[in-house]
Amino acid sequence: MNSISIGTATTSPGTLQYGRWDAFDHPTGNREFLPVILAQGKEDGPTIWLTAGIHGPEHAGPSVLYKLLTQKLVDHLRGTIVAIPALTPAGIRTRSYVPYHVDINPNRLWPDGKLTKKKDPEKHPQFSLERAYERLFAEITATADYGNGCYLIDYHNAWIGSISFSFQDRVLYRADVDAERNKAEAETLLAKQQEMLEAYGHTIVVEYPAEKYIRR
Ligand SMILES: [Zn+2]
């Protein structure tokens, strides 16, 4: 059984473990940490990550994780779930879509901490949250393990009473160099993504035409 440590929590087969992952220090002296829950079954299996709470007013995601992660689940689990139920604690505390310590939608920084359009680092140094997500993403890629894939499910909510659905992100590829190879890789990734979404079993929503993503 593989042992996984995230922040102060370390897996223990057949149990739920709770801990903290230090994100950054506020200039006012307090430390921002993300809560970590590790659920590990007694049998070997994949490791998947489940995250929620990036948008302060969206409470369905954190609630889903707290309801899901019970001893009863662990008793039937093969493998490990790493869960972060509050990706933006300051946003949740203040019910803010954009928390007071960043000036853009934090979802633009998640999961890998990278803004799509690179800014001048002298005029726009990285946000503390950007650096924190970069480090967390490194932990995800180092531990998430599903055969030849890497699973991360991030829970949001659309609005009260909405049906459950999954977004299918466009898989974009560069066509200016190595177009054929890039296209083949993108198609392989798209097929994998399709499998994941079908296995999850919820309605699948494709959000924008590819051109709109590129313009953004
Ligand atoms: Zn959201």
What are the main properties of this structure?
216 residues, alpha/beta, Aminopeptidase, 5-stranded mixed beta sheet, two-stranded antiparallel ribbon, 25% strand, binds zinc ion
State the shape.
globular
Largest sheet: 5 strands, mixed
Hetero groups: zinc ion
Strand runs, count: 9
| Second rung of CATH, namely the architecture of the largest domain | 3-Layer(aba) Sandwich
What's the CATH class of the largest domain, please?
A: Alpha Beta
User: What's the N-to-C terminus distance?
Assistant: 43 Å
Strand order of the largest sheet: 3-4-6-5-7
CATH superfamily of the largest domain: Zn peptidases
The radius of gyration is: 18 Å
Going by helix content, strand content and strand pairing, the class is alpha/beta
Provide the CATH topology of the largest domain: Aminopeptidase
Mean pLDDT: 91
Compressed to H and E, one letter per element, the order equals: EEEEEHHEHHEEHEH
